[in-house]
Amino acid sequence: MFSGINDINIHNANILSQALPYIQKYSGKTVVIKYGGNAMINEDLKNTVIRDIVLLNCVGIKVVVVHGGGPEINEYLSKIGKKSEFVNGLRVTDEETMEIVQTVLAGKVNKDIVSLIDKNGGKAVGLCGIDANLLKARKIELQNGIDIGYVGEIVDVNDSIIQHCLNGGYIPVISTVALGQEDGKPYNVNADLAAAKISTKLKAEKFILITDVPGVLMDPNDESTLISELKVEKIPQLINDKIICGGMIPKIDCCVEAVNGGVKRTHIIDGRVPHSLLLEIFSHEGIGTMIS
């Protein structure tokens, strides 16, 4: 009956058709993506994620990309013989290290992402938190009195330059170097937290964390125990029960902050799964854990 028409092409067309309601729903809405994990390192995954970001932009979704670059910073420090030090999970950032963080994040990593988006037909603008006072931070003071240097927490987001880019059809790509509120010096800030703050300021429809885990699991050794939907009020009990623990806690905290700040839905998804972004946004089942 359908002589000459490949079954695979028909299947692909059906998938596109099923995405239509979601394209209509999210067109014109803002989605903030925290880009990190293996999807920033593995070349195949990197290209897939970037192409998906461009596709989202092409169907009218206002995409904001926020990125870190811990492995790249570690590599650069290693090249100059400087050891990476951490206290309570925070990178000790003296003046020399801060210069390297700024060079790597706002320079190489940021421009590599911008270049890749442009190469795939998108229009991207590279920004860091210092540009137009985008991110203001105050120095983090640890209770034990240890000075970890130029490490800050976000106290203000000036979204005017982000809105300007979005309204012009560009994809803002933001590296998380912030401007000190009191001393005007650059500060290293946590990329997950910065992305959550930006999501809140923009009143984003979605905040998506691309990670190296499937999401929140009831049993960390069994991916079939994925919790696909999670209400904010249920989280304290899951932390108390040690179901949410370790490195998942700060990611959950970011999602909770975004939801409490007005973001409708937040998601922790597995960037190791090809097209995880599209699966999350354009399918009913989604992927990973949705927190609302």
TrEMBL record:
**UniProtKB keywords:** Amino-acid biosynthesis, Arginine biosynthesis, ATP-binding, Cytoplasm, Kinase, Nucleotide-binding, Transferase
Q: Name one GO cellular component term.
A: cytoplasm
EC class, as a word, reads transferase
The yes or no answer to whether the keyword Kinase is present is yes
GO terms for MF: acetylglutamate kinase activity; ATP binding
Q: Which InterPro entries match?
A: AceGlu_kinase-like_sf, AcgluKinase_fam, ArgB, Asp/Glu/Uridylate_kinase, NAGK-C
Aspartate/glutamate/uridylate kinase domain segment(s): 29-270
Listed under catalytic activity are: N-acetyl-L-glutamate + ATP = N-acetyl-L-glutamyl 5-phosphate + ADP
What compartments host this protein? Cytoplasm
Q: Which PANTHER family match?
A: N-ACETYLGLUTAMATE SYNTHASE, N-ACETYLGLUTAMATE SYNTHASE, MITOCHONDRIAL
Protein name stated in the entry: Acetylglutamate kinase
State the taxonomy lineage.
Answer: Bacteria, Bacillati, Bacillota, Clostridia, Eubacteriales
